[in-house]
Amino acid sequence: MHPLERLLNLTALLLNTRRPLTFEEIRDQIPAYQQDDSASAKRMFERDKDTLRDVGIPVELEPTDVWDVEKGYRIPRERYYLPDMEFTPDETWALFVAAHMPGEDAEAASAFQKLSAGSERGVLAAVAGRAPAPGVDVSGPPLAAVAEALARRRAVRFKYRPLSGEPAERQVDPYGLVFRSGHWYLVGQDRERNDVRAYRLSRMLSRVRELGEASPPPDGFSAMRHVEAGPWGLGRPAATARVGFSPKVGWLAVATTPGARVIRTRADEWVELEVPASQTDSFSSWVLSFGADARVYSPKPIREQVVERLRAVVAGFERVVEPGGEDG
User: Could you tell me which residue, 95 or 209, shows the higher pLDDT?
Assistant: First the structure.
């Protein structure tokens, strides 16, 4: 087993346990530690535990019972998962201006990137050291314009390219800015649709222009709740699907899929999950990313969507490699 796979297995096990696990219990569930020499296995575990701690994963040692007779290990979810960040208009504008002032203030830019990276900070720090966090979408002029409109409580209009359909103009009362999964989103009241929507700033095709005074958000409004994301894509999932995963990837699907619920583990060790889903390309792509190690069983429309997407991928591949054609 590759050391990285062993570390991932250990992280998933300790993250999903409801109580601290002793080393013997951990050894029973992770084959890499099931060698004949228990002392060697324990040394390997100690090295792995220290490695996880070195990259910021909080492996904690806790009593396994009220008498504190024996200690066990676990990773508290509340310490492992950093919360998504939601800034007030003034805070967002101050961060953006500080990071983009003339003179290229390296410390301000670095601080802005770390805050923007959110939950990815620990992983990026472990891999990239002191390098700037990659993939941070600052969205250029739209972010500055939207942040200013928020601070001044002004409505905005812009041309927008949705995931499906033709680009069109949107008129929005801004309620909040959210950074999620590498992108900035404007959350606000869409005047034409009379509903709260989220718009990714990188899909704005025109300048952001002000329209006049904007309506205030409702009491207790949370912009973050309107930018929920998962395998189903952006927004709240419309349905649930029953998906099977092979023993090779089942633990990963359980550990990383928001809202997943284990239905059963079959005799062949495939695990069946009920997961939030939607009849979208986002969900189909997520399932297909597991290759032959994932199968959608229900509901029928979502299964057919995944099958149709798979057929399109296969057809595209066949066109690329057909005899006499150019190699892609």
Answer: 209
